[in-house]
Amino acid sequence: MIKGILYFLLSFLCLNSLAFTIQSKVEDESFLENPHYDTNNELADHLLKLQKNYSNLIDVRSIGSSLDGNDLIVARIYKDVKRPRSILVPMFKYIANMHGDETIGRQLLIYLAEYLVKNYGVVQEVTKLVDTTDIYLMPSMNPDGFAKSREGSCESMQNYYGRYNAEGIDLNRDFPDRFDRQLIQKLYHTKRQPETLAVMDWVKSNPFVLSANLHGGAVVASYPYDNTINHHDCCEDSPTPDDSVFRYLARTYARNHPVMKDGNDCNETFPNGITNGAYWYDLSGGMQDFNYVFTNCFEITLELSCCKYPSRNELPIEWHKNKKSLLEYMKLVHMGMKGLVKDVDGYPIREAEIFVQGMEEKPVRTTERGEYWRMLTPGTYYVRAVAFGFVPSRYMEVVINESEPVIVNFTLTPSDDVEGKSRAKRKTVKVGADEFGFIFKTDFKYHNYVDLEKFLKEIHETYPKLTRLYSIGKSVENRDLWVLEISTQPGIHRAMIPEFKYIANMHGNEAVGRELLILLIKYLCENYGPNKRITDLIDNTRIHIMPSMNPDGYEKSSVGDEGGVIGRNNAHNVDLNRNFPDQYGSNIYNKIQEPEVLAVMNWSIANQFVLSANLHGGALVANFPFDDSAKDFRPFSDPKTEFNPTEENDIFKYLASTYATAHRTMYQGKPCPSFIQETFENGITNGAEWYPVTGGMQDWSYVHGGTLELTLEVGCYKFPKPEELSKYWMDNREALIKFIEQIHIGVKGFVKSSIGTPIKHAAISVNNIQHVSYTGIDGDYYRLLLPGKYNLTCSAKGYEPQTIEIIVPETGNHSVIYNFHMMRNDPQHWSSAYDFRILENILHTKYHTNREIEVIFRELENKHPLIAQFEDDGNEEFYNSLKVTDSIGETEETKVHIMILSSVFESSPLGREIMVNLARHIITSYTTKEPLMIELLKNIVIHFVVVNTNFNRVYEQFNANESICDPHLSEELSDKLLNAESDVTKNKFIKLFEKDEISLALTFTAGDDSNVQILKDREPVYAQFAKDTQSSHLGAQNQLCPSNSMRLNENESFRKVTNLLYRMFSLPLYSINLSCCKMPPENEIADVWRENIERILKFVNLGRKGVRGFVKDEQGSPIRNARVKVVGSEREYKVSKNLGFFHVLVPKGTCQLQFFSDNFTTKMININYEDGILDLKNITLQMDSVNNKNKKYNVSGYVVDENGTPIKKAEIGIKGNWRKQVFTNDVGQFEMENINDENPILTVNAQGFKKSEKLVKMNLVGTTKNIIFKLSQSDEDMGFKNLLFIFFICTLILLTVVCITCCAINGCNMPCNCCNEENSRHLTENYKFSLLTRKTKKDVLFPDEIYGDDSEEEEELFNPVSLKEPIKRYKDNFSEDDLSEEDDLVVLPSRSQ
């Protein structure tokens, strides 16, 4: 009984569990809720959301773009979509909406994608289909037309608006047709629409087996052919050799469709719901015929609804009508037979043809993996395989059933009857190589230009499928600069196949390298196939070899030249290895590029070279960059060589060591006979450390060309006898091959958008190294790296940057592959994330006039008066200036003053706009209470200075031609600064730096990608800060900007301006290169801002870095002329003028600070700095008692009367020293120098005034200022002069009375000469007086003493006063803190206007 009850309960639970399981696995069609048509943007978002949620099942890519720039999106659905397709898994595709207004298919494919991924693992039918089929869904081939179509339009609009693409072309009439004349030429050369070309490339590059093209406007399944040779309008069948297969395919779809199977919808009749395309109506250039004729793919056309663009409410109904048909049709991809075709060694044979007896007109071809699929209806067939170079297989009987595809593999035997190169190649394998590695006899000899040209042409003719011969330009004497490419697909850049180049003979008399490359070409071509190592190398590398860069020089040189110079230079007598643009400057050797150099530069930039070497002669060493340093461009610089490595010195040393160790003797580092003192450790050297080469090719290739390049000195003799060439070849052969193989170390991959569109010119940076790599046209990138862990950053215009960590393993000779999938960076989203949603910075950007910038700055001041102040000093004609800091108006002495200058080149107004954006950004950051910005502005003052001069002239050029890129001015601001003549613009500029104590300065450049490393040779500390500032994750760095003479000259001018400011103000001027164009189109300003904001803010944030504190004496008083210096740097920081405050930038790590001042001992302090602000509080200096014994002192001040009027020509002397005397000037000022006494008594004598004396305690540092004497009138009786004065005054009063009386009597009608005298004429100047109160309170040691303030900021200020005003005397308003007990005055003269 109990057992029965337990059995019943167990059964009940099992049934409930089963019911729950069944209930929980109901198919998901939730996508039918709220039906609507996805717009183009929604389509991408919809599929990407699926990809995010079902990343293992669906992958969204773009195969190209429409005419209007919309992505042609394809969704791939497969069981493990991240992995490549498994062998023999067939590929299926649906394409819809090629007519933009036929929309049912478009939305059904979106539904189908969602149905397949959501029901995988739930619906068995779906699971099996996705597991066994590589499915591709393309919802819209014509997104442009769809965007123009209108919902509810059952017929095409007038002029087929919406049906056609943006060019007005019917895409289903745009494909190559089987009846086209000269078909092959037309296929590749006819101008076709971008949508058509994208689909053609996609279909031809993938082995699709089955396909359908979804349309609207009828309900029928149509199959090829679509036209006849006679092109009758209708009613003429045009069957393919596979007509039975196509009828079977079409009937399968139709019979599973509840309406189509009847064949009588839309007022048309189609038996069984199918039709031959040509029988319905004749159509040329259709897509289904293209698939069948030109590829292995079988395709039909499905017309799904009578109404082309029905209401959205119809979508669920249409889904249910077509759902079963869509699934059943996809299953047919497994119909027929499939298999592999291999040779007797088991290697796949590509392009083998599978023939079916009776249907020989339509063979199918094998893939690169030897796969094939042949669609066949159930039945018995006879099939064979045929491949060039192999014996055709015999016909095999194959029985096809409906359940599963039949697998038939073929093994083919090589044929001995094959003639031509294929036969020769097989025979070559049996011959073997000689002692030098060559298959055929080789003559070791020199080749002059004619011989070289003949050799290269013969090689190309012998190996036409392996080589390409091309010229990159002409020499001075019109000789071709030949390059031979060696590649399995010559002339084509293949994605993920890196490109390599060798160049030799750039010095014409260095001939060994020229012959080595000729021999290398022969060796590579002959050994492709027989030698697995060489075969693998060529299969995976595109190799370019230029045997002679200087053919003119070679023709002048001669055999036996050991170390001469005849033929070294080109026909213009220019050394080509001194003629390239140099990162450090220009000189007479590289100001103008030679034709050979220009050709190599253009060739290098046009190709995506990854690794390179330049072969020379006369030494035996592998030389790596850099070849020079900044000092090599300074006149009278130290000739001593110095080590100057790149940031990637480790990889360069590795590459150089690889060549040296593979060479038979180079690694020994032994000297050449001509230079017995010259040895190289391990056979390698840094170029600059060996001897400086300015304008060298290897540095240019790295800095500008983006290529890692070495200079290989391959032998001690430049032009040895030909008998020695075989030895040179054997010495270098292995090294030449091994060096090429190094191109495969590191990392490579693709950079694509989230939907698969390749992104070209994306920047790939490693660990913030300034040198970046760029993607090619296919979005592929390559970066050579040694084993280790790296942060790899990808940034591209319009995309969010990505940083990932990669590991390059210790073992293996293949690159790590990592692909970036970049997300679009919406400008407004970016603005919200990085720029506080300041839309003015990214929307409707423009070049603002001077007045508009002034208005912007004044508005910022009005809205934010506590932190922003427009600096209105009357210079608006020259500069607009805005000051930004926390608490405007309060003391700024303990803040760091930073100047941001728009540009020193007026022809580059881009910096003005970036400056305005930066001002908005910083102010908004502060007002939104960003903690870091609040902290920053409490410690710094930013002066935004916009150069206004010549903007109108530049903008006129831009208006005339918006693509001008680089406007031109005959004279720039930089030219004026460097000109010795006085100029008002120059003077105003200099005063900008004199007005405030500027600690840091930044300016913007454009048009040249040469990053100016500030005074690298003199100030490595500041050069490092500049370098750190350049790195950015928000934008592309180191843009590959083309160079020209104007840009090189501007770069040189900028260097000189930098040095000028450093000499004048001890101020390093930093720069950020914003763009390749000095004036890009206005709509690109936002992109420039987005790309550079991070680097700019990095510079501004230097204000919150460094060491700060106060320098004081032992009594705690500020030492106001103290200076601070970082040991190892030339720059001396002055302390502030009142408090002795200092702020010094220091490098990370341990360093030493030096504090010094006149009359004080020097103090050294060791610090360990990490980041942020390191506050040293008070630094106390002790008096230097030894040096103070012979100290000389200076003093200055004023002499005034009791009313504050200056007394001129007063005599100032020193009591007890009658020889020392000076006199006051017209404003009562005096200066006395070289006083021996530390506490002198100054005496003053002035006529009519009492004599005065004052004991002055001299400042130990600097000049004792503002010693003021106030003299009283003398008590003597009036003298003769006083009587004359009284008489003059009385006479003047009498004349005034007479004049007034005369005017009254005559009714003021008569002129009164005495009243018309110009009473504004004065024989002497008039003055106003004001007081300076910015002094710190001091203890007074003597009651009649005032300490002078040595602050340079407390200058005598002259306030102009009009002569129409009466001259006023100012009352004493000094406090005790400012004056001694005698209430002395500071006199400030005011000159009449």
TrEMBL record:
Residues 1-19 form the signal peptide. One of its GO terms (biological process) is peptide metabolic process. The keyword 4Fe-4S does not apply. InterPro entries: CarboxyPept-like_regulatory, CARBOXYPEPT_ZN_1, CARBOXYPEPT_ZN_2, Peptidase_M14, Peptidase_M14_domain. Coiled coil: none annotated. The keyword Lyase does not apply. Residues 36-333, 445-743 form the Peptidase M14 domain. GO terms for cellular component: extracellular space. Keywords: Carboxypeptidase, Glycoprotein, Hydrolase, Membrane, Metal-binding, Protease, Signal, Transmembrane, Transmembrane helix, Zinc. The active site is at E303 (proton donor/acceptor), E713 (proton donor/acceptor). The chain crosses the membrane at residues 1283-1305. GO terms for molecular function: metallocarboxypeptidase activity; zinc ion binding. Its cofactor is Zn(2+). Belongs to the peptidase M14 family. This is Peptidase M14 domain-containing protein. The lineage of its organism: Eukaryota, Metazoa, Ecdysozoa, Arthropoda, Hexapoda.
